[in-house]
Amino acid sequence: MGVLNVTPDSFSDGGRFVTRDAALAQARRMVEEGAGIIDVGGESTRPGAAPVSEAQELERVVPVVDAIARELDVIISLDTSTPAVMREGAAAGAGLINDVRSLRRPGALEAAAASGLAVCLMHMNGEPGVMQESPSYPGDDVVADVQRFLRERVDACLAAGITRERLVIDPGFGFGKTLAHNLHLLRELDVLAEFELPLLVGMSRKSMIGHALGRPVDQRLPAGLALHVMALERGAHIIRAHDVRETVDALNMAWAVLNG
Ligand SMILES: Nc1nc2[nH]c(S[C@@H](C(=O)O)c3ccccc3)nc2c(=O)[nH]1
User: Fold this and answer.
1) Domain 2-259 has CATH 3.20.20.20
2) In what order do the strands lie in the sheet with 75-79?
């Protein structure tokens, strides 16, 4: 899953792809590099980021989804929590709703159900603006909290008529977790096999690497590849990354070893 941020303040590419044509060119490049999914996000979840209006998010995301759907043979994922973006994005050709808030905003569950799209449910402790202010868990057991949360969100989706074959789960690395929480979660990632659902993870360029190694965001690729290979070994099916070419090679090499 290649990351395509179409926000002016995206933490890692500083809004290089705000124009539709630039976004399409980047999507084309990621598909050429081996991405099977393009994750289009119009709301920066960077802590302290200015909230984006629904109109702004629609204006950034929908034209890009439409352009990609017209030209490229790739699954388009909507990185959004906004019901209107789910509706408009689905109409424009998206195939997956990737909501970091797991459809908890008013109207989101209904919009996702009505869209017929696949849905990724991701664990988050708190809200993006404050989630990293001393995150904590009952009994410091982040794994149990992730399991509990994902079970609850899966049940909410099933109750809303979203069937299991449309569901993907994700432990949400970096979303309300300390470095220790993130490392423990990766070590124990295989417990999520209990859901028997596709497992998506994303650790690319994340601050967990900064905290572990002191690397700035533009020097986190090697560590990100290590983390994503370990996630593959522990059962991940979809890897969300910015650097598609390098990630595809690392994962294909690891896959050859695991399934040689
Ligand atoms: N499903 C799924 N969707 C995702 N969207 C993101 S945004 C994240 C980033 O670093 O890219 C981020 C977090 C905080 C601030 C800026 C950017 N991360 C994931 C993930 O881990 N899983």
Assistant:
1) yes
2) 2-5, 37-41, 75-79, 96-99, 118-122, 167-170
